[in-house]
Specification:
Number of helices: 7
Strand content: 15-25%
Helix content: 40-55%
CATH topology: OB fold (Dihydrolipoamide Acetyltransferase, E2P)
CATH class: Mainly Beta
Distance between the termini: 96 Å
Oligomer: single chain
CATH superfamily: Envelope glycoprotein gp160, DUF2291, alpha/beta domain
Radius of gyration: 24 Å
Structural class: alpha+beta
């Protein structure tokens, strides 16, 4: 009896002295265990590329001029028709699209290399295509309804998922492009882009891409 009372007193004193001391409910412990047991979505991102990412983007891609015209007219309506976002109001829209055009300029000296593409034939660029190896943003991850934050443990792991998709895009699609003769080339690409406003410039991330270099 005395031993039990002494132990209870020690526990009370210990918890009183630590502001962060709390009793974790059984439900919370269970939720933590379930989260820890989930497989890492980041680890599976590259494996999903050929089996789910490319087929999904290929099937869902709408013509670039159609999507961008709708977005300029009303981004919310365009998003509801052509786009996807996991979270609700206020989040940017992610669009899956296909484009074709002519490269008007290329910045291949940077690791975040890009190409400017004229889609409508007026000689002015309508989209900036990312070439990597550094791929900016999280558009690939965020455009996929089968990839969710609920599949990972935390924000850091969710960021790793995006990086894994971006790495796959470079390794499988962009790495071997003829970068020394892009200007004037004809480009066909299927991919994704994210818009936060109707006036934002399109930064296009390819999931598949074909380049036809000009004849020398």
């Amino acid at each position: 009896m005395m031993r039990t009372l002494f132990a209870s007193c020690l526990l009370t004193i210990f918890c009183t002295g630590l502001s962060g001391c709390k009793i974790i409910e059984t439900a919370e412990l269970k939720a933590r265990a379930e989260a820890a047991a989930k497989p890492s979505a980041g680890a599976n991102a590259t494996a999903l590329w050929d089996t789910k990412v490319v087929p999904y983007v290929t099937e869902k891609a709408a013509p670039f001029p159609e999507v961008t015209a709708a977005a300029k007219a009303d981004l919310k309506l365009a998003g509801e028709k052509y786009g996807y976002r996991e979270v609700g109001e206020g989040a940017p829209w992610n669009f899956v699209s296909r484009l074709s055009g002519t490269v008007t300029a290329a910045n291949t000296g940077s690791r975040a290399a890009t190409a400017e593409v004229d889609v409508d034939g007026d000689g002015k660029p309508d989209a900036t295509i990312q070439l990597g190896p550094v791929i900016k943003g999280t558009s690939i991850r965020d455009a996929l309804p089968f990839v969710s934050f609920t599949q990972v443990r935390n924000q850091i792991e969710f960021a790793d998922v995006a990086k894994s998709f971006n790495t796959a895009a470079y390794e499988k699609v962009l790495k071997d492009l003829p970068r020394d003769r892009l200007v004037g080339s004809k480009v066909e690409a299927t991919g994704v882009f994210t818009l936060r406003s109707s006036t934002e410039r399109v930064l296009f991330t390819p999931v598949s891409m074909r380049v036809e270099a000009p004849q020398s």
